[in-house]
């Protein structure tokens, strides 16, 4: 519904001005109309921070990834993370944050699973609602994505997800519906994919009939970047084509209306939605005055933000196993008596804090797990570190700790000089600092006054070796040619002979490599020179580096483990192997990490395995470890949070938001993955995730909802607030509670996540055995009890009736199962629903 001010503006806008509003001007900005006091919308990527205008610009708070937030099962905490994101958006002068990602973990190989909260739609929708309300409480806007069934990266721009309406309604649409119902979210981003043959960005049934009409969504729908596929989007429900300049909307739309191809009323609908959102975000001003000037982007590393993000990271850690060794558990670490810990693995001293692609930001800082342990353990505890093996499939950017700027010697990193020509001629137009030599430019302006398609860039500084051995340097470019010099000698050059690779959304070259022996402390001048390809608005480069690994690295790691009281092995993935633009090919750990695990566990039974990955990996090689914990990508506070859990400063309180199978074929979706002939059939229907494991009676490695605590709990006296309700009462909005008495029976404070699953019995055939319908997380001191309650309603009992095109509740017995996971039942309570 239009406000008076929006209604007035609509009457003042010309056809061309209305059309202009429907397109971006560049990567991150829409169009404004200065004569009418309409400022342009500014958007920016999340979902783990706020990047701002540039990939190489200001630093950002870096939150735990989506799966990690889902693992907290703590909606109040997720809301607080949303507040941090909203405040970050305001500090970057961003109006709409492109977050959260609310697609589902349909398949374990999907490249962007780490961005998404869960495999379960109810947990996903609950988390998305919490974080959006947090973001928008600050005055910033949120944009949920990617609408809908955009659940893998294989052929992501063209694949058609073939999904029945019942499955859409009950699984893939449900998180979006929950958000629209329970928030006033500003924007929805359409998916790249097709849904049942039609591109999501022009899908009338999806965008107009369901989202806007049935659900009553009042905000705007924007495309994913370059995800508008034809002018059919104009009548198909899309309101804003991004980025600009537009290919199908914008000025082209005015021409289509003049030609009678598109109705003028469709443009009015699009423009009014954009104006309504603009009004909410304070972008409409007095036309008699000049448009407000946006404040410069700021890096605000605030103590309050650090505190929230550390708590979120702590509560995301999932303790998968914690077995006794010689009658005692290794975790939490007995800090008071500990003298020697071996910290082993490729991810121990290099903080993998986020996944790759558009979800990546430039964190204020990143604490590795080794650093976190150094910060937490007493000074008398000896820490021994061995890498053991390399895990990343390509060399990561040079660690900032190895780099010293010439202009700012006290600041780790490199100097960056931009030249407004392709020959490095004359003085640089702009000089900046970069913490690492991984720079990405998207849009017409790479730096102030520097056009991306006509520039050359030089990075320079000093490389300082942190260890002795053979160091490997790598060069990857995208939209550029480049070279690397050490002490004035060209050691890497791909100006000619580039081969295609997978980096930078598939636009990058393959790696060019150079090896050199360096002693610890050796210094080498480092220069990288890069020239953008003429006419391209996208460019990127990376100078990578691998620390030396001995040929007997696994043997050295096992020896270090044997000599220590406790061995901590950190394995996992990184933003190169989990990234937008491609799916993984396996759930196996990359490289020789399995061999490293087996050797260390054999050398020391008191081994703790930490899994630094944003989604499922095969942990069979970790069998025999004293403890295993999933630590995800935890953002800037990774090391501090993990150390707090390991040392028992906080309870282990995370629970799995997704099922960990033993092998890829365990997932029912794998039968139809990745798709063929341009289509992927969601043939598992409702039996996705734990629903499929239940149906096939497959024992997972770790079930959905699983996670251990350092204390123990009892759950008793389960009951429903109503034992009988009629279908009519439920349809009229009657709500009810399921509750139980929860007692901490252990000797330390801890968290209990009480989960509720509904089993519909004989009320509907062909349904999953059970489905999550509610949860609550409670903190209790030793001996403390509380009555934990979970609210339920008609949708807890309803199913989608395709013939009648409606949600229905069928009479019968509904069993509500209180549990600690999908496979660990505590007690039940039954609701009788009468006709």
Automatic annotation (TrEMBL):
What would be one Pfam family of this protein?
Answer: PA14
User: Do you know which PROSITE patterns this protein is assigned to?
Assistant: GLYCOSYL_HYDROL_F3 (PS00775), PA14 (PS51820)
SUPFAM superfamilies in the record: (Trans)glycosidases, Anthrax protective antigen, Beta-D-glucan exohydrolase, C-terminal domain
Q: Which UniProt keywords apply?
A: Carbohydrate metabolism, Hydrolase
User: What's one GO BP annotation on this UniProt entry?
Assistant: carbohydrate metabolic process
GO MF terms held by the record: hydrolase activity, hydrolyzing O-glycosyl compounds
Q: Where is the PA14 domain?
A: 409-561
InterPro entries per the UniProt record, alphabetical: Cellulose_deg_GH3, Fn3-like, GH, Glyco_hydro_3_AS, Glyco_hydro_3_C, Glyco_hydro_3_C_sf, Glyco_hydro_3_N, Glyco_hydro_3_N_sf
Residues annotated as transmembrane: none
Protein family according to the UniProt entry: Belongs to the glycosyl hydrolase 3 family.
Name under which the protein is recorded: Unannotated protein
């Amino acid at each position: 519904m239009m406000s008076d001010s929006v209604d007035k503006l609509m009457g003042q806008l010309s056809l061309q001005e209305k059309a202009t509003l429907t397109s971006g001007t560049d990567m991150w900005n829409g169009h404004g109309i200065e004569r009418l006091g309409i400022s342009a919308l500014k958007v920016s990527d999340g979902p783990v921070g706020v990047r701002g205008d540039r990939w190489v610009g200001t630093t950002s708070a870096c939150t735990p990834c989506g799966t990690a937030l889902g693992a907290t099962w703590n909606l109040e905490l997720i809301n607080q993370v949303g507040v941090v994101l909203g405040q970050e958006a305001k500090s970057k002068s961003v109006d709409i944050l492109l977050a959260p990602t609310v697609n589902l973990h349909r398949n374990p190989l999907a490249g962007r699973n780490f961005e998404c909260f869960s495999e379960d739609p109810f947990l996903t929708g609950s988390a998305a609602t919490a974080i959006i309300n947090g973001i928008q409480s600050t005055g910033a806007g949120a944009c949920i994505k990617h609408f809908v069934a955009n659940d893998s990266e294989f052929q992501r721009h063209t694949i058609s997800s073939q999904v029945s309406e019942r499955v859409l309604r009950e699984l893939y649409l449900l998180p979006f519906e929950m958000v629209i119902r329970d928030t006033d979210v500003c924007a929805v981003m359409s998916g790249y994919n097709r849904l049942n043959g039609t591109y999501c960005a022009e899908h009338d049934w999806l965008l107009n009939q369901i989202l806007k009409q049935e659900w009553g969504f009042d905000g705007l729908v924007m495309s994913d970047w370059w995800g508008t596929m034809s002018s059919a989007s104009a009548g198909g429900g899309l309101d804003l084509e991004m980025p600009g300049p537009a290919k199908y909307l914008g000025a082209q739309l005015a021409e289509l209306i003049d030609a009678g191809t598109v109705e003028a009323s469709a443009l009015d609908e699009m423009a009014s939605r954009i104006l309504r959102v603009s009004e909410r975000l304070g972008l409409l001003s007095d036309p008699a005055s000049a448009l407000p000037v946006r404040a410069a982007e700021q890096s605000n590393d605030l103590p309050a933000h650090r505190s929230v993000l550390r708590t979120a990271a702590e509560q995301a850690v999932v303790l998968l196993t914690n077995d006794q060794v010689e009658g005692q558990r290794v975790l939490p670490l007995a800090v008071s008596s500990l003298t020697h810990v071996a910290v082993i693995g490729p991810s121990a001293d290099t903080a993998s804090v986020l996944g790759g692609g558009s979800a990546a930001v430039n964190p204020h800082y990143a604490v590795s797990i080794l650093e976190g342990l150094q910060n937490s353990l007493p000074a008398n505890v000896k820490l021994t570190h061995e890498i053991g093996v390399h895990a990343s499939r390509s060399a990561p950017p040079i660690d900032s700790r190895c780099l010293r700027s010439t202009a700012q010697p006290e600041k780790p990193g490199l100097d960056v000089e931009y030249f407004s020509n392709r020959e490095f001629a004359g003085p640089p137009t702009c000089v900046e600092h970069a913490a690492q030599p991984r720079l990405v430019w998207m849009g017409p302006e790479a730096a102030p006054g520097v056009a991306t398609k006509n520039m050359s860039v030089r990075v320079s500084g000093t490389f300082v070796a942190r260890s002795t051995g053979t160091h490997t340097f790598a060069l990857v470019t995208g939209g550029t040619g480049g070279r690397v010099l050490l002490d004035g000698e060209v050691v890497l050059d791909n100006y000619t002979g580039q081969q295609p690779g997978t980096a930078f959304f598939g636009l990058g070259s393959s790696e060019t490599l150079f090896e050199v022996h360096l002693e610890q402390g050796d210094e080498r001048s480092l220069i990288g020179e890069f020239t953008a390809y003429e006419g391209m608005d996208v460019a990127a480069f990376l100078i990578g580096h691998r620390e030396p690994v001995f040929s007997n690295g696994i043997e050295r790691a096992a020896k270090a483990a044997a000599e220590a009281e406790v061995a901590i092995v950190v394995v996992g993935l990184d933003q190169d192997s989990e990234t937008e633009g491609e799916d993984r090919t396996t759930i196996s750990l990359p490289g020789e990490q399995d061999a490293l695990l087996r050797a260390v566990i054999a050398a020391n039974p008191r081994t703790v395995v930490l899994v630094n990955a944003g989604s499922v990996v095969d942990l069979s090689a970790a069998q025999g470890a004293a403890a295993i914990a999933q630590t995800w990508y935890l953002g800037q506070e990774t090391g501090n949070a993990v150390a707090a859990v390991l040392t028992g400063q906080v309870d282990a309180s995370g629970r799995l938001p997704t099922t960990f199978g033993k092998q890829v074929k365990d997932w029912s979706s794998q039968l139809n993955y990745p798709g063929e002939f341009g289509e992927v059939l969601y043939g598992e229907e409702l039996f996705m995730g734990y629903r499929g494991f239940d149906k096939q009676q497959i024992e997972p490695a770790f079930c959905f909802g699983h996670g251990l605590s350092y204390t123990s709990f009892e759950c008793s006296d389960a009951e429903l607030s109503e034992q009988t309700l009629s279908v009519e009462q439920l349809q009229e909005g009657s709500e009810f509670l399921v509750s139980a008495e929860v007692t901490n029976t252990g000797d330390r404070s801890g968290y209990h996540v009480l989960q509720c699953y509904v089993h519909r019995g004989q009320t509907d055939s062909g349904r999953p055995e059970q489905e999550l319908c509610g949860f609550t997380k409670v903190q209790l001191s030793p001996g403390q009890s509380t009555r934990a309650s979970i609210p339920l309603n008609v949708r807890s009992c309803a199913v989608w009736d395709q013939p009648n095109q409606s949600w229905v509740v069928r009479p019968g017995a509904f069993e509500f199962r209180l549990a600690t996971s999908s496979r660990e039942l505590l007690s039940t309570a039954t609701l009788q629903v009468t006709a």
